[in-house]
From TrEMBL:
The family this protein is said to belong to: Belongs to the adenosylhomocysteinase family.
Keyword Hydrolase in record: yes
Name assigned to this protein: Adenosylhomocysteinase
Top-level EC class: hydrolase
Species this protein is from: Geodia barretti (Barrett's horny sponge)
Keywords: Hydrolase, NAD, One-carbon metabolism
InterPro entries: Adenosylhomocyst_ase-like_sf, Adenosylhomocysteinase-like, Ado_hCys_hydrolase_NAD-bd, NAD(P)-bd_dom_sf, S-Ado-L-homoCys_hydrolase_CS
Occurrences of domain S-adenosyl-L-homocysteine hydrolase NAD binding (ranges): 163-324
An example Gene Ontology CC term for this record: cytosol
CDD domains: SAHH
Residues where substrate binds: T29, D101, E128, K158, D162
Gene Ontology molecular function terms on file: adenosylhomocysteinase activity
Catalyzed reaction equations: S-adenosyl-L-homocysteine + H2O = L-homocysteine + adenosine
Length: 396
């Protein structure tokens, strides 16, 4: 992660985060460990809890505690009760900044059960994922958001790369590791054509899949058609599917009527943030038997004898059954996180209780540092070209 390494080196010298207490709710992986080390180098006191019960790499968690003296509250496979106890434990450090991947810390701090004194300590936060940004913008619109948030997910150096290339590759990586499925020749239904969905659709096509996209937004459906994909309603699409992948951020994208229409042997996976995209209670209600087909794969036998296979309990398949995004793409995402914390430290008194975009200067800095890490040089505008672009008189 060369971009994050360069930021950590500067942070070590400048200590821009001195005095900040950071509670992070992220996937506890090697990439997150590098981010936590960078925050510590910058002077922050940091703790981290898991943003998904199945994504924690226990050896990484142990290393952060033992080697880096960074507090970690996460165990792979933890139940729901433990998951929320760990979130509360992270908040017990009385953070001045929250760093979320799904708005769990923000939601907890704004809940009726929360200690109001904790909320008063927080000056700002960041949000890593699309689902979290949607929730936080809703809170801001309703006037209930109590502190400012920077939407790291919306940085171009985040969602253009992390969501498209990271999710695109790691989702299929998780599915292949869990099932050993041959993607070539398989009819793959991709639910949602946002940046994550188009990443998966394009990577699946590159592996030889016959890809069908489902959408509810006309513009995105039109983009999928123009990109060369078939677009169908879900009820029709699942009848052809060998593999269905949800990436919408919404609830019950796959429901009872869809399970009934699926072919025997169809595989179901989710790469949206929460495990609500697949209506698992409805699937269990339709089933007469449930068993373990192989690690990370459960087989549901429906009343008519048809078998459907669910990967990773319907949670993020790239983290439940694999290792998440490659470090190279997380390098940019977490560089944005580190630089946004520095921005908060410098501008905390001028921020209002709303959701902010990542400053353009940070986005451009991350892009330039990544190019340098790749050893790539680009052109610059000449004085004549700059004048032309800024003039309404030239060019006639």
């Amino acid at each position: 992660m060369p971009v994050l390494d360069s930021i950590r080196e500067r942070f070590q010298n400048e200590r821009p985060l001195d005095g900040l207490r950071v509670a992070a709710c992220l996937h506890v992986t090697t990439e997150t460990a590098n981010l936590m080390k960078t925050l510590k180098a910058g002077g922050a006191e940091a703790v981290v809890c898991a943003s998904n019960p199945l994504s924690t790499q226990d050896d990484v968690a142990a290393s952060l505690v033992v080697d880096e003296k960074i507090g970690v509250f996460a165990i792979n496979g933890e139940d729901t009760e433990t998951y929320y106890k760990h979130i509360d434990a992270a908040l017990d450090m009385q953070p001045t900044i929250t760093m979320d991947d799904g708005a769990d810390l923000v939601s907890r701090l704004h809940s009726e059960e929360a200690n109001p004194a904790l909320l008063e300590q927080v000056v700002a936060g960041t949000e890593e994922t699309t689902t979290g940004v949607i929730r936080l913008k809703s809170m801001a619109t309703e006037g209930v958001l109590k502190y400012p948030i920077i939407a790291v997910n919306d940085a171009r150096t985040k969602h253009f790369f992390d969501n498209r290339y990271g999710t695109g590759q790691s989702t299929l990586d998780g599915i292949i590791r869990a099932t050993n499925l041959l993607i070539a020749g398989t009819t793959v239904v991709v639910a949602g054509y946002g940046w994550c969905g188009r990443g998966v659709a394009n990577r699946a096509r590159g592996l030889g899949a016959n890809v069908i996209v489902t959408e509810v937004i006309p513009l995105k459906a039109l983009e999928a058609v123009m990109d060369g994909f078939r677009v169908l309603p879900m009820q029709k699409a699942v009848q052809e599917a060998g593999l269905v992948i949800t990436l919408t951020g919404d609830i019950h994208v796959l429901r009872q009527e869809h399970f009934k229409a699926m072919k025997d042997g169809a595989i179901i996976a989710n790469s949206g943030h929460f495990n609500v995209e697949i209506d698992i209670p409805a699937l269990e209600k339709l089933s007469v038997d449930k068993g373990k087909a192989r690690p990370y794969v459960e087989v549901y036998t429906l009343g008519d004898g048809k078998k459907l296979y669910l990967i990773g309990e319907g949670r993020l398949v790239n983290l439940a059954a694999a290792e998440g995004h490659p470090a190279s793409v997380m390098d940019m995402s977490f560089a944005n996180q580190a630089l946004c914390l520095e921005y908060i430290a410098q501008n905390r008194d001028n921020l209002e209780n709303r959701v902010y975009d990542v400053p353009e200067s940070i986005d451009e800095t991350v892009a330039q540092l990544k190019l340098e890490a790749f050893g790539i040089e680009i052109d610059t505008l000449t004085a004549e070209q700059e004048k032309y672009l800024n003039s309404w008189e030239m060019g006639t």
